[in-house]
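Dear colleagues,

I hope this message finds you well. In preparation for our joint manuscript, I am sending the Ubiquitin carboxyl-terminal hydrolase 2-like (Tropilaelaps mercedesae) sequence together with its predicted structure, so that both groups work from identical material. I would be grateful if you could confirm receipt.
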Amino acid sequence: MPVKSRPYPHSQLQIGKVSEIHDSSVVSPEAYVLFYELDGSTFSRL
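The corresponding structure tokens are as follows:
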């Protein structure tokens, strides 16, 4: 998987949103992982 580390202006916003989604447990882990992938943030921990 190509990891792209680019300083997005809405990076923190997206991360916060994903955190809320994960906390609510509305979507599966794969979903918010894909969300990170789409955002372009460095999230290759899972």
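For the figure legend, we might mention the following. Residues 33 and 43 are 8 Å apart (CA to CA). The mean pLDDT is 54.

With kind regards,
E.M.
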